[in-house]
């Protein structure tokens, strides 16, 4: 009986680990530009070299790797990220322009979400205007509940994050939310250079957090949408 119980425990552990890996494998962040008038004043893209460094290789003489560096704000990161990718979201010009730079998070549909967050390239604290744009309205999570109902929006500075961990130029922000079964989940950046406190119109994010699972790199080329996910819905949102 002891052996049978032990084997059952091992099986549960393996299945649980498999489920966790399945969740991280299917959670993907697809950047897109909403720009129906073709103003070409918004951009959304994952780029290598601009993410929050987690065990990044460094060289002191340009010839060999001589050490590693992690920003204290992101000592943990997406294990799939091999190129220190970061998410660039830009809106040039006025906020009134009907356009946005955004990212749709696929793989969360049907899941119960209680935590969201991201790392943001910004020194010191949310109260400082330096660094990435961060206001009550952008960048913001927009969460549409499964089966319909009012969307939930979580701005960069409103409501206040329950976690604000600072590093050497980055902040890790996390929000706990009432449990929501998700239909769609996205991050929207729709404030331009005329919006304070920074009047910058640009943000760099990394390690998008959904229920403590991190997405810190763009989808692999040719990645298929997870089963049950729908094509992008931003045309309906706007």
Automatic annotation (TrEMBL):
<protein>
    <submittedName>
        <fullName>Uncharacterized protein</fullName>
    </submittedName>
</protein>
């Amino acid at each position: 009986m002891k052996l049978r119980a032990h084997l059952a425990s091992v099986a549960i552990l393996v299945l649980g680990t498999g489920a966790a890996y399945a969740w991280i494998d299917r959670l993907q962040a697809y950047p897109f530009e909403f720009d129906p008038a073709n103003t070409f004043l918004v951009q959304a893209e994952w780029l290598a070299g601009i993410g929050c460094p987690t065990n990044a290789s460094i060289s002191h003489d340009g010839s060999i790797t001589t050490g590693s560096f992690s920003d204290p704000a992101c000592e943990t990161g997406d294990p799939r990220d091999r190129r220190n990718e970061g998410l660039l979201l830009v809106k040039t010009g006025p906020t009134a322009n009907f356009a946005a730079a955004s990212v749709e998070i696929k793989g969360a549909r049907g899941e119960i979400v209680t935590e969201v967050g991201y790392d943001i390239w910004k020194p010191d604290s949310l109260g400082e205007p330096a660094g990435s744009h961060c206001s009550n309205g952008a960048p913001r999570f927009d969460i549409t509940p499964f089966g319909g109902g009012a969307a939930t929006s979580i701005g960069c500075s409103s409501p206040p994050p329950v976690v604000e961990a600072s590093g050497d130029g980055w902040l890790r922000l996390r929000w706990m939310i009432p449990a929501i079964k998700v239909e769609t989940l996205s991050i929207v950046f729709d404030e331009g250079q005329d919006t304070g406190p920074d009047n910058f119109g640009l943000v760099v994010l990394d390690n998008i957090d959904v229920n403590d699972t991190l997405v810190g790199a763009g989808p692999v080329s040719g990645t298929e949408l997870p089963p049950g996910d729908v094509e992008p819905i931003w045309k309906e949102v706007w």
